[in-house]
């Protein structure tokens, strides 16, 4: 991905479009995906995008956006080797293996504490680090992932061959057979979260566990930082949940919310990554932090409290 946010243009024969790698993707106005309403209060105005809070149900979403049918085109190789990761994707997802493995080993321990054994399915498994960590703990691990680039990485570098390349709709794994389904920073990207959660429910055993992490748009940090909040990435973070709207989504898709927590929702980041991201908030701070790059590949754990992990189970019937 190059110059994504800058390469906006309008076609003379249609609506606005956005350049993403080699593709020119359309942008369309969308209603609230939680309730269908079209009225809302603009939280962030970032032309051509608006982040809107639905007047009817308080769900926060981005409009206009890439239509459901084209969204998968965003997540190809460029997404994982982005030149502009503050706005879009990851700078080098696989080079940062050490940090991701530390993060996902910690998440695997979190899941282990709630469900100590069984079969796990991860939706949006990316390079496979969580599945790798779960396999280390003795779980049978499968993934679903739409980007061929990271499916290949997981198979070739981590020896994970149980990952389906494609959307969940085309997943061949047996339904009703998983003890755990996990989504780490994924539900905010999917075209239709309610429909996706209904599909996910079909893959769980009746006594299965859904574990899902996403950013919390009502967190203090989101309010303090406003439009500079790191989770406002308009092209890809098209849905912004809060604990309240997450409960609504789970209710509507056949789940019962068990717990919402910020515990365990942090990640290990390198000093380099931290210094890079500070540029989004303050150029002066970014400059002052440069000497710390000498420790660039050291990792530390950070949990700013602006993401939630929800635990839920299928509702009976
Ligand atoms: Zn709504």
Which characteristics define this entry?
317 residues; Rossmann fold; 4-stranded antiparallel sheet; 9 helices; 16 strands; alpha/beta; disordered N terminus; binds zinc ion
Would you give an account of this structure?
It is a single chain. With about 325 residues, the chain is of the alpha/beta class. The chain has one domain: 3-Layer(aba) Sandwich (Rossmann fold), CATH 3.40.50. Helix content is about 25%, strand content about 25%. The protein has nine helices and 16 strands. The protein has helices spanning about 75-80, 95-115, 130-135, 150-160, 195-205, 220-225, 245-250, 270-280, 285-290, and strands at about 10, 15-20, 25, 40-45, 50-55, 60-65, 120-125, 140-145, 165, 180-185, 205-215, 240, 255-260, 265-270, 300, 305-315. The chain has a seven-stranded mixed sheet, with helices on both faces. A four-stranded antiparallel sheet has the order 4-5-6-12, with no helix packed on it. Helix 2 (about 95-115) crosses helix 3 (about 130-135). The longest helix has 18 residues, at about 95-115. Mean pLDDT is about 90; it is low at about 1-10. Zinc ion binds near residues 35, 37, 54 and 56.
What fraction strand? 25-35%
Percent of residues in helices comes to 25-40%
Our measurement of the CA-to-CA distance between the termini, rounded to an integer number of angstroms, reads 44 Å
Q: What's the name of the CATH homologous superfamily?
A: Vaccinia Virus protein VP39
Write down the secondary-structure element order. EEEEEEHHEHEHEEHEHEHEEHHEE
Number of domains: 1
Give every kind of bound small molecule, once each: zinc ion
Q: Are there runs of 5+ residues with pLDDT below 50, and where? A: 1-12
For this structure, the CATH topology is Rossmann fold
């Amino acid at each position: 991905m190059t110059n994504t946010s800058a390469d906006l243009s309008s076609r003379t024969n249609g609506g606005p479009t956005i350049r993403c790698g080699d593709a020119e993707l359309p942008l369309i106005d969308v209603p609230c995906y939680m309730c269908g309403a079209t009225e809302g209060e603009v939280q962030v105005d970032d032309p051509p995008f608006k982040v809107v809070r639905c007047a009817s149900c308080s769900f926060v979403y981005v409009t206009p956006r890439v239509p459901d049918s084209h969204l998968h085109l965003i997540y190809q190789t460029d997404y994982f080797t982005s030149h502009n990761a503050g706005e879009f994707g990851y700078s080098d997802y696989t080079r940062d293996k050490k940090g991701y493995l530390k993060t996902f080993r910690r998440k695997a321990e979190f899941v282990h504490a709630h469900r100590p054994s069984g079969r796990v399915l991860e939706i949006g498994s990316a390079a496979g680090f969580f599945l790798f960590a779960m396999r280390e703990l003795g779980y049978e691990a499968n993934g679903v992932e739409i980007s061929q680039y990271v499916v290949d990485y997981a198979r070739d570098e981590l020896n994970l061959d149980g990952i389906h390349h494609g959307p969940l709709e085309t997943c061949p794994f047996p339904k009703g057979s998983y003890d755990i389904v996990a989504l780490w920073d994924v539900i905010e990207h999917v075209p239709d979260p309610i429909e996706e959660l209904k599909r996910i429910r079909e893959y769980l055993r009746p006594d299965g566990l859904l574990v899902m992490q996403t950013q919390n748009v009502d967190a203090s940090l989101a309010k303090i930082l406003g439009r500079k909040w790191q989770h406002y990435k308009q092209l890809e973070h098209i849905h912004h949940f809060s604990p309240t709207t997450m409960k609504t989504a789970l209710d509507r898709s056949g789940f019962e919310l068990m717990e919402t927590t910020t515990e365990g929702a942090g990640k290990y980041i390198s000093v380099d990554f931290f210094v890079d991201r500070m540029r989004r908030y303050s150029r002066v701070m970014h400059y002052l932090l440069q000497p710390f790059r000498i420790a660039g590949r050291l990792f530390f754990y950070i949990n700013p409290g602006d993401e939630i992990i929800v635990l839920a189970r299928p509702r009976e019937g």
